[in-house]
UniProtKB/TrEMBL annotation:
One of its GO terms (cellular component) is cytoplasm. Residues 474-589 form the DALR anticodon binding domain. It is an enzyme of class 6 (ligase). It comes from Streptomyces qinglanensis. SUPFAM superfamilies: Anticodon-binding domain of a subclass of class I aminoacyl-tRNA synthetases (SSF47323), Arginyl-tRNA synthetase (ArgRS), N-terminal 'additional' domain (SSF55190), Nucleotidylyl transferase (SSF52374). The keyword ATP-binding applies. The gene is argS. Monomer. This is Arginine--tRNA ligase. Its EC number is 6.1.1.19. Residues 9-89 form the Arginyl tRNA synthetase N-terminal domain. HAMAP family: Arg_tRNA_synth. NCBIfam families: argS. It holds the Pfam family DALR_1.
Length: 589
């Protein structure tokens, strides 16, 4: 396993060295090298530098050019316009580099120099409730960030901070005590999805019946309220029923995860309840240190810059006036655990942007209390999923859209696309299998390709389209490559660096060169959408290459082998890139 630096990085280094040699007074200046349409790369750093040194940018650029020693990578360098450097790299260097990349199973993508431990909080649905599109986003984004970080060698600890605690459990448990057969059912033999749906149906029934009683029967309401302290203090019978409800929910969650094709491990589900025993200590410490103060009976933390519309400060409430602990106290206890016990260097929270104020206050409180070092915690906030009407995504009746229905529909639409493309004789089972990978991939891709903080419109028609920036387009590009290989006969993918490259080959090859750099930035900046953008561009360049450069019918065997090599590397990059985003690449579409 060997890291393969990109050719772009090598060229950058060469130009930087030449710049330091030519202008020792600007030794650390960045030449600002970019891919360019005019040449392979363009460096425009000389403009800012000239201003700084009060010189002429064209002259400076000329000096840098002269200071560049002959090397294998740069075929030509010239000064253009007001003082840009236009750089053309050698075909041979491009192909040599790609050949080295292909040798490595990781395609030469570097590990981090200084990996640490990241605890990431994502996919945190609530017990006894349906999952909604917000939970979908958190799951899909979180999963991609986990894969990207692990690929870089970071140690990642996953935490699914599910909503499994709180006063509403008093009502559910009390109802179960009085109606002990409510959750009974014949043993589920079906798959994860059906078992999950059946579990959710039972939970919905339990929720509706207990809510109805709670709202209509004062005596029941009182008994339900009394059940809360019994739960909090760990009364065994109460806890047993609580477990039963949590387990039903987990069955439901796993059904959704199964359909969504993400791995969520039971041991990583550490919900709000897990921090129950630490809450008392958390509030005591906060109160003793003066970080939190009593205000109208509640224990509060105040912030200079957090005020309501009328100018009165909005505090973070860590303990309510009735003594109850809330969402904030739990998050504070979780921080202490993640930093103190799990030894996290970085804490990530993949949570809806609408909770940003909550996290800002929680992080600041934890810092004041000395539990959280500066710059350790970070929310990765995501935008809202909208319906076609531009409002938060709901059913026509104004209810939350059930995730399973949504995913089923995505697979259904994908099946139509797949069926139309499929050759005669493809079985219905095969179509279903492909449709699942296409439909689920489309939902994930749409979610990831929109920049995280932006709201986006959930539009299945667009998501499963073969045209445009969709996973189907990428999967199709992959399948096309695979089909070439099925027809290649004895031809093998072999790089021939001595060959001159056609423009479409160069463009594709130089983009392939950027795979490692893209993954590094995407992982280190927590931006999966940089990967989708990169892969989309790759598929586009591939299709241009495919139109302009015959592969199996190339002029010579060497050229055919060289083009097959580019095909093969393209497929491998598509496959590895999409896999990191949780998206499959079927062999045929
Ligand atoms: N369960 C919450 C919800 O559905 C999300 C939890 C986010 N994580 C956290 N540590 N607060 O909105």
């Amino acid at each position: 396993m060997a890291t393969v630096p990109s050719l772009a990085a090598t060229v950058h280094q060469r130009v930087s060295d030449a710049l330091s040699a030519a202008l020792p007074e600007a030794a650390s200046a960045d030449p600002l090298l970019r891919r360019s349409d005019r040449a392979d790369f363009q460096a425009n750093g000389m403009l800012a530098l000239a201003k700084q040194l009060k010189g002429n940018p064209r002259e400076l650029a000329g000096k840098v050019t002269e200071a560049l020693p002959a090397n294998d990578e740069i075929a030509s360098i010239e000064v253009s316009g007001p003082g840009f450097l236009n750089i053309t790299v050698a075909d041979e260097a491009i192909m040599d580099n790609l050949a080295a990349r292909r040798q490595d199973p990781r395609l030469g993508v570097p590990y981090k120099d200084d990996p640490g431990t990241t605890v990431i909080d994502y996919s945190q649905p609530n017990v006894a409730k349906e999952m909604h599109v917000g939970h979908l986003r958190s799951t899909v984004i979180g999963d991609a960030v986990v894969q990207l970080l692990e690929h870089r060698g970071e140690k990642v600890i996953r935490r699914h901070h599910i909503g499994d605690w709180g006063t509403n459990f008093g009502m559910l448990i009390q109802y179960l005590i009085e109606h002990p057969h409510e959750l009974d059912h014949a043993s589920d033999t079906a798959g994860a999805k059906d078992a999950g749906e059946a579990a959710m149906a039972r939970l919905n029934r339990l929720y509706k019946s207990s809510r109805a009683l709670f709202d209509s029967d004062e005596a029941f309401k009182a008994r339900a309220r009394d059940r809360v302290p019994a739960l909090q203090s760990g009364d065994p019978d109460t806890l047993a029923l609580w477990h039963k409800i949590v387990d039903e929910s987990k069955t439901y969650f796993q059904g959704v995860y199964d359909e969504l094709d993400v791995e969520i491990r039971d041991t990583d589900i550490v919900g709000e309840s897990a921090y129950n025993d630490a809450l008392q200590e958390v509030v005591e410490e906060l109160e003793e240190s003066g970080v939190a103060v009593r205000s109208e009976g509640a224990l509060c933390v105040f912030f200079e810059d957090v005020k309501g519309p009328d100018g009165t400060p909005t505090p973070l409430i860590v303990q309510k006036s009735n003594g109850g602990f809330g969402y904030a106290a739990t998050d504070l206890a979780a921080i202490r655990n993640r930093v103190g016990e799990l030894k996290a260097d970085t804490l990530l929270y993949v949570v809806d942007a609408r909770q940003s104020l909550h996290f800002r206050m929680v992080f600041e409180t934890a810092r004041r209390a000395g539990w959280l070092p500066e710059d350790t915690a970070r929310q990765l906030p995501f935008g809202t999923v909208l319906g076609k009407d531009g409002k938060p995504f709901k059913t026509r009746e104004g209810e939350t859209v059930r995730l399973v229905d949504l995913l089923d529909e995505a697979v259904e639409r994908a099946a139509a696309v797949v069926r139309e493309k499929a050759d005669d004789g493809v079985t219905e089972d095969e179509i279903r299998a492909r449709a699942e990978q296409v439909g689920i991939g489309a939902v994930k891709y749409a979610d990831l390709s929109n920049s995280m903080t932006r709201d986006y419109v959930f539009d299945l028609d667009r998501m499963v389209s073969l045209q445009g920036d969709t996973s189907v387009y990428l999967q199709y590009a992959y399948a096309r490559v695979r089909s070439i290989f099925r027809k290649a006969g004895a031809l093998r993918p072999v790089p021939h660096p001595e060959l001159e490259l056609a423009p479409a080959e160069r463009a594709l090859a130089l983009h392939l060169d950027a795979f490692g750099d893209t993954l590094v930035t995407a992982a280190d900046e927590y931006e999966p959408h940089k990967v989708t953008a990169y892969l989309y561009e790759l598929a586009t360049l591939y299709s241009r290459f495919f139109e302009n450069c015959p592969v199996l019918k190339a002029d010579t065997t060497e050229q055919a082998e060289n083009r097959l090599f580019l095909c093969d590397l393209t497929a491998e990059v598509l496959h590895q890139g999409l896999a990191l985003l949780g998206i499959r690449t079927p062999e045929r579409l």
